[in-house]
Structure formats: C-alpha cells, structure tokens
Amino acid sequence: MIFSKKAYTIYILTLTILAFVSYFTLDVRIAKYFLNDVKTYEPIGDLISVFGESHWYIGTAILGFLFFKYYKKNELYKQRFLFLLYINLFSGIISLFLKWIFGRIRPWGMRNGNDDYGFLLFQNFDMGFVEKMKYHFITLSDAPTTFTSFPSGHTTTVFAFFTFMSLFFPRYIFIWFVGAIILVSSRILANDHFLSDIFAGIMVGTISTIFLYSKLRGKIEKVS
User: Fold this and answer.
1) DSSP secondary structure of 194-222
2) SS3 of 1, please?
3) From 48's CA, which of 62, 75, 158, 195 has a CA 20 to 30 Å away?
4) Where are the domains of the chain?
C-alpha cells in the first residue's frame, strides 16, 4: 500500500459523494443539454472517445512487453509494460462486473422526450428476488450496450493509464490530468455517459491501478 488507509478512505468517499450528488442534481440536466444539440456535440465526443478505448493501451502493453523481452532486453521496462497490461485487464473486468450488477440505462433513454433514467438494480422491488434477478439479466442480455452506463469503461481505462503515467512520470502529472479530463469529458459529449458514471470510472481506474502497484511495486521499481 503506497497511501494510508485514511487517504484511500477519503478518496473513495469523496468520489462516492460526488457520484451520488451528481445522480440527483446534475446528471439529467447535463445530459439533456447535450442531447438537445446531438448533431453538434456527438460527433466531437465520438471522435475524442476513440482514444479512450482500451485496446490501444492493451495493444501498446503487449507490444512493449514483447519488445523489451525479446528484442531489446530490459527487465524493468518489460515488467512495466506487463503492469500496464495488468491494470487494463483488471480495471476492465471490475468495470464490466459493476456494469452488469448496476444495469444503468445510458443517456439514450432520454432521447425524443423520453424520461428513462436510473438503475435496474434499484427498480422492480415489487418482484420476488429470483424474479427480479431474472428480469435484470434478461434485460441486460437483450440490450447489453444500453444498460451498461455505470461506471464508464472509457473513463476506467483512461484513469488507469493516467495513474500509470503519474506513478512513473509524476513530474508531468498536470499534462496527464488535462489529457485524461479531455478524454473522459468526451463521453458526456457523445451522450454515452452521465457525469456520475465518470466519477465512478475515475474511482475504479485509479484504485485498481494503485492496488496492483502496491502488489507489484518490487518488480516495476527495483528490477535492475
């Protein structure tokens, strides 16, 4: 662990509160603002969002690992690229798991004057538990993209990479942070996520990366 338990607790609590407050006060307002001018904002958001897709970082990690393992042998860099691969896979799996558990409908649900908003997990309490779970997963299976808004997968990937770069190149943390904010903001412009989805993605991406760093620190910092 590279930070104190108190620091972790404050960080998680802060992002949780921000996501909670955003859900009840800002999410709908922000989403409707961009939905009202889809033709202007969505193409911009979609274009920028491309750079937040996980395959770029996974591919880079694999190529870097192979390069420093077989061509220009360097154990430290090999382990660091392997670490980059691990954090993308680990944070991605957590993000996917949470998406399927919460089952949140994307901002698309408010298009054309509709008011579909919220989490499948917190709906249909009039059903029995088994019936509710069956409905939950059938709905997700029928529309896996529509009901997987929370947390933002792109944001998880971007902030896993942001944390990675900040750990090894802390001198340029401001640059990494500005780049990360631009990338995750595109998810709102593209009408694919709510602000609270972004806060949740930030938490998953950073915490999962720091957790793995604490476990692998000896290999990626001290290998000669």
Assistant:
1) -HHHHHHHHHHHHHHHHHHHHHHHHHHHH
2) coil
3) 62
4) 5-222
- Residue 157 pLDDT > 80: yes
Write the CATH number of the domain with boundaries 5-222: 1.20.144
Cβ count within 10 A of residue 24: 9
3-state secondary structure of 104: strand
Give the Cα separation of 156 and 187 in Å (integer). 12
Q: For the chain, what is the mean pLDDT?
A: 92
Q: CA 155, 148, 162 angle in degrees (round to 5)?
A: 10
Residue 224: the pLDDT is 46
Model pTM?
0.93
More confident residue, 30 or 112: 30
Query: What are the backbone dihedrals phi and psi of residue 119, each rounded to the nearest 5 degrees, phi first?
Result: -110, 135
Q: How far apart are CA 201 and CA 177, in angstroms?
A: 14
| Cα–Cα distance, 87 to 161 (Å, whole number) | 8
Query: Among candidates 131, 109, 98, 147, which has minimal Cα distance to 27?
Result: 109
* Cβ contact 204:91 at 8 Å: yes
Q: Is residue 223 over pLDDT 60? A: no
142: which 2 tokens? 């029928």
